[in-house]
Amino acid sequence: MGSYLLKRLAQVPVVLLVLITTTFFMMRLAPGGPFAGDKKMDPVIQKKLEEKYGLDKPMLVQFGKFLVGLPDLGPSFKNKTKTVNEILAEKFPTSAYLGFLATMFALALGLTAGIVAGVRQNSGFDYGSMAAAMLGLSLPVFVVGPVLALIFGLYLKWLPSAGYDGWSDWKALILPTITLGLPFAARIARLTRAGMLEVINQDYIRTAWAKGLSEKVIVLRHALRGAMLPVVSFLGPGIAAMLTGSIVVEKVFAIPGLGMEFVESAFNRDYTLAMGTVILYGVLLIFFNLVVDVLYGFLDPRIRYS
Amino acid sequence: MSADPNQKGVSPWVDAWRRLKKNKMSMFGLWVVVVMSLISIFGPILPGMPNPNVQFNFVGAQPAMSRHVYVQNKNSLTVDQAPQLPPGYASKSELEFGINLERYREYRIVVRRRKISGITQTLGAKSIDVLEVSGKGDYFVVENEDGTLGEPLPPDLTFVKKKKLAKVLGKKRVVILRHVFPATERKVTATLAGGKVTGITLDGEVVKHLSFDGRDVLRATADGEEQTLLHILGTDSSGRDLMSRVVAGGRISLMVGLVATLVSLLIGVVYGAVAGYYGGKVDALLMAIVDVLYGIPYLFLVILLMVFFSRSLMTLFIALGAVQWLTMARIVRGQILSLKEKEFVEAARMCGSSDFKIVFNHLIPNTLGVVVVYTTLTVPAVILQESFLAFLGLTIEWAPGETLESWGALVNSGVKELGDNGERFHLLLWPSFAMALTLFSLNFLGDGLRDALDPKQRGRT
Amino acid sequence: MSQPVLDVRDLRVHFRGDDSVVHAVNGVSFHVNEGESVAIVGESGSGKSVTNMTVLRLIPQPPGEIPTGEISYRGQDLLKMSAREIRSVRGGKISMIFQDPMTSLNPFMRISKQLTETIELHTDLRGADARQRAIETLDLVGIPAPAERIDSYPHEFSGGMRQRVMIAIALSTNPDLLIADEPTTALDVTIQAQILVLIKRLQRERGMSLIMITHDLAVVAGMCSRVVVMYGGAVVETADVDDLFEDPRHPYTLALLRSVPRVDAGSHQKLEPIDGLPPKLTAEPTQCTFAPRCQFVQDQCLKAVPPLEADEDGRIRACFLKIRGGEVVGAEKAPAPAPGAKAEESAPAEVQDGIAPEPSHEDAEAESSGDAKSGGDA
């Protein structure tokens, strides 16, 4: 387990470096520069701005300065008052909260559905829930979101359909959580079911039956551990998918989080901010992948004790 | 269990096909995918399929199964010229229209010393004393120097000779005024020969030229038959037929899905095969690269790419393909690794096959199954990603300004047009439905293929 | 003679497929007495495993079906018990161990837990007491340093050790009957011997009854006092071990014995396999299932199913012919008009009915074939 961990940790700086380099050069090489699109700017002013932001220096020097300056991500090009770090710090908690809620929702829904479907294979529940899961995978978030907003927000008026006022405004997060979590839940349900089916046919489950244990005990104590493994290893890419999904969900439900910030900064050509967001996402992703891998190793005693 | 000498051997493909056939959902998926593809390819060419780009602005957004009179936004008939009408009319000989046209009379008003000194009806140079808006629906409008018409003047206006000036005439000395009467239905007939207009009548009077807006046409008949256009799925806000747009969208989405997947396939299979086959250090290095690349949030980079660089089709193909190849490479490598140990490879080597031959003749065909499965599952993922990008506004640009509207772009418009009470819901419904159905089917098909090709199920029908 | 520990009567088990039914077990009857060790011998597909899995109701009920049969454990019909009742029998009164020790233990659970959960389920011991019993049982089966190793995971043990752990789990609750389904087939020969010796010793020490399922005649000879031979989903012969080996009364038993290579036959011994293939049991048998491969086959064998009956000296077998010393010496009975019907003859003791006066008679074998996957109908 130790060497496994070490190997994974060693990858982290490499991935980060690749990510930062790619993003940096992509943005610097983009035609137009950060001031393209602004109303015609006086060339003198433009030159001054470029000097201020160090854009007149050669590319590699800029890159070097950026690297050295990390983790300070620099000032925002468009927002004159705040630095990138400040903006990120502001928006991040909201997105994190939403992501957390969505993950919990997805796990609760997905695991339960998957376990029951797997244990009651070929039953009505099995077909029904797997078809529903398939639907959840085929409907994009930006269809589900507005439709839910329409039904629950405008027709039934049970929940707000947009906006978010802060921690206490939990009602506003219900629809976005469901929208964001549904595809995730669908995948988890399918994986859990498949894992369950795989495990149920194993010899050691037969042994458990022969010992006289009840179905509930067998499913929860014996089968679940093995069935969970594919789900755990999926959590990494699953969270990644959710991060990308959050962009759209935040846009649809007007939630002021990182996702919206990223899109706006990209369209506004606010280089530093866009880059900062991507790097933050990358770091999050790497972190989660690492956690998931460690978790997997922990859950499988064959890896833990080897 | 000893082998039955009378049992016929069955190739694993036939075996898998049989298993697939039993899976009803997968067969449904397969059928839908085939139908969708055929529609996408041949749809736009089908006779009777409306042109997705033609706008009937006067119709606006209409729900499914709605009809309207078959005319253009702006139509005109001129003797000795081809009729400015939608295609199909030119080949007829007798046309009849019921059109709401306004009648008007023109007057010349002279202003002297802030008083109306004279009102003359242009036709016949008749002088009148009072000019008033007489009924509901009629109004005055001023003709500008350049011949264009101004905005309608306020109602309830009266011009009386020798009275003080109505403010609305402004500082002008001479004003050409039109008194426009409410539109009533007028009957227009036209005869054509050889694709050209030979005669036009308006309420029985012969005229040489007539132009009218589509919105004013109440009915149109050609050779005795009513000319209407049916929109099976309705229209969007610009009056474009929704069904043909959905079909066209399908073409784009499916093409993007397919090509990007093929790109990822090409890269992934070769990469994975090399890594898996050569193993050892080569494999370790190649897979380390994959692991590193896995940690990158791809879609963000693609977004940046499209915003800053170009939104061309090519960029999209490569960008989306680049997102997916990692998974493909891993799968192929895994498959090859497990196959490598199998005895038939040893046997082939003992027979003297070269490395290249082994890879191509033995290993790759055996990975084909897994590859087919994951390809079928990658296509919907790519389509979803492209629609994601379209939703954010990053639609495909064929040429600057010209967007290729995939299903994602259509759904995006649908969402924008939703209206506060979901009035134009059908604009969201049909493209989403088409996309969801296709993705659903592809996923089911992929699942079914995966089960059918699962070696653990071999022999078990 | 006291009641047998286990009494299987006329058991039939079918498996319903999409368009076919497999008659895995066709009217099997046998019994096991107190403290006795009985071997059930047969090829793959003979129905021996299915029969025994059915005892504990470990066959999933779709696709499995039990149209007829009665399995009495000390007088109570196991097939009629409620789910809760059968669960208390499983692992508590009747334990079962399986063929492949590498996969029969839960890889994600420590051995201690796998032992104590059974102990706590079927005895009054809890916590530290249960753990103590677990350690003692591990010691009993020969695991070195049990107190330290009890907290290990299965993958830290070798195959032979794992099988010992399985035995420990099975015996920790002091069951009356142990069913061992080919427990050594997956192990090395030397380990095999160790395990068998262990089982035999434990059985004798505890006075436990044992059903040993195997296809290996050597195991039979070394371990058991009585043998039940199965073929094609039915019992073909039942006898005491010595009687069976010296004087087989069924063509299949005969052929089986002949196919085993003999140590004393010299290096030029020709191996004698049994020609033909095992039967496909897709329909209720209307003839002797062994007939297609039988070297003595006669007309009557193809017309009816021979019933399991005792002949004049009490030896029980299902065959129309009289086999002595490896040859046919006459027909035992006239061919029966309907399949499975009992022909009338001079043989004493109707086998299908009740319990015969002598203990080693009357093994109507009920075989349930097939393997329990996701467990019984609990």
State the assembly state of the protein chains.
heterotrimer
Mean pLDDT of chain A: 82
Main sheet of chain A?
none
The run of helices and strands of chain C is EEEHEEHEHHHHHEHEHEEHHEEEE
The coarse silhouette of chain A is: flat
Describe the structure.
- The complex is a heterotrimer of chains A (306), B (461) and C (378).
- Chain A has twelve helices and no strands.
- Chain A is mostly helical.
- In chain B, helix 1 packs across helix 10 and helix 3 packs antiparallel against helix 4.
- In chain C, the strands form three sheets. Chain C has an eight-stranded mixed β-sheet, sandwiched between helices. A four-stranded antiparallel β-sheet of chain C has the order 2-1-4-5, with helices on one face. A two-stranded antiparallel ribbon of chain C has the order 13-14.
- Chain C is globular.
- Chain C starts with 5 loop residues before the first strand and ends in a 47-residue tail after the last strand.
- The C terminus of chain C is likely disordered.
- The chains are: A mainly alpha (306), B alpha+beta (461), C alpha/beta (378).
- Chains A and C meet through helix 8 and helix 9 of A and helix 2 and helix 4 of C.
Topology:
The complex is a heterotrimer of chains A (306), B (461) and C (378).
Chain A: H1 2-29, H2 43-52, H3 59-69, H4 84-119, H5 124-138, H6 141-155, H7 171-200, H8 203-210, H9 215-252, H10 258-267, H11 271-299, H12 301-304
Helix pairs in contact in A: 1-11, 4-5, 4-7, 4-9, 4-11, 5-7, 6-7, 6-9, 7-9, 8-9, 9-10, 9-11, 10-11
Chain B: H1 12-22, H2 24-42, E1 66-69, E2 74-78, E3 94-112, E4 115-121, E5 126-128, E6 130-132, E7 139-143, E8 149-152, E9 158-160, E10 174-193, E11 196-202, E12 205-207, E13 209-213, E14 217-222, E15 225-226, E16 228-231, H3 242-278, H4 280-294, H5 298-308, H6 313-340, H7 343-350, H8 355-391, E17 396-399, E18 402-404, H9 407-416, H10 425-452
Antiparallel strand pairs in B: 1-16, 2-13, 3-4, 3-10, 3-14, 4-5, 6-9, 7-8, 7-10, 10-11, 11-12, 14-15, 17-18
Chain C: E1 6-16, E2 21-32, E3 37-41, H1 48-55, E4 64-73, E5 76-77, H2 83-89, E6 94-97, H3 101-104, H4 111-122, H5 127-140, H6 146-149, H7 159-171, E7 177-181, H8 189-206, E8 209-214, H9 217-223, E9 226-231, E10 234-240, H10 241-246, H11 251-259, E11 309-310, E12 316-317, E13 321-324, E14 327-331
Parallel strand pairs in C: 3-8, 3-9, 6-7, 7-8
Antiparallel strand pairs in C: 1-2, 1-4, 4-5, 9-10, 10-12, 11-12, 13-14
Helix pairs in contact in C: 4-5, 5-7, 7-8
